[in-house]
Design brief:
The chain is mainly alpha-helical. It is 88% helix and 0% strand.
Amino acid sequence: MGAVAGCSEIKGDCEEILRRFQALAI
């Protein structure tokens, strides 16, 4: 969830972080 907080600062990275997070969850 920490990465999500940074997403607010960098919207562009937000999508990349979310994709990586999902890949790990799968």
